[in-house]
Amino acid sequence: MDNSTKSMLWLAVQLFLFGTACLAALYLSGGIQKVNQLSEPVMQGQKQSVQQYIGISEPLTYTGAQVRQSIAQIQEIGVDMQIDHVLYPHAVKPEPSALLRIEVNRTYQVTYQTNPHGEVVTILFS
To answer: What per-residue confidence (pLDDT) applies to 46?
Structure first.
């Protein structure tokens, strides 16, 4: 073997050992769990939205920010929404001041009202 081949092989071994040492240090420091927690929403590829869960019978909760976003997209969703006994029809674009009434830090429980054909007609947040 010539000198350059030996140098390339030695460099490859050193890079492999360096990478292995970095991964071992990250694992031992508990960093992998933190990285997994932080990257989980990105890896899922979708955020929780009302459209994703229409028709699911199990109880779901949403943050006030998610509820605000749903109200902002009410015409696209195509279903009336009721938040704390205030009805927002899907045919009317909500006023920006109406969105300010929704508490961003609060957690809302969702319930779906359906018609006799099983179609969702109203989404209730309480």
So the answer is: 46
Q: Average of pLDDT values for 12-31? A: 79
Please choose, from the candidates 79, 73, 82, the residue with its C-alpha nearest in 3D space to the C-alpha of residue 110: 82
Cα(27)–Cα(38) distance, integer angstroms = 15
Please name the residue ranges forming H helices in 1-126: 3-28, 31-44, 50-53, 64-72, 74-77, 96-100
Spacing of C-alpha 76 from chain mean position: 19
Q: Could you tell me if 88 and 125 are in contact, meaning their C-beta atoms sit under 8 angstroms apart?
A: no
Tokens of 118: 């099983």
Which class for 74: exposed (0-12), middle (13-18), buried (19 or more C-beta within 10 A)? Answer: buried
Phi, psi dihedrals of residue 121, rounded to the nearest 5°: -110, -30
pTM beyond 0.70: the answer is: no
Of 103, 79, 106, 104, residue with least CA distance to 90: 79
88 and 94 Cβ atoms separated by less than 8 Å: yes
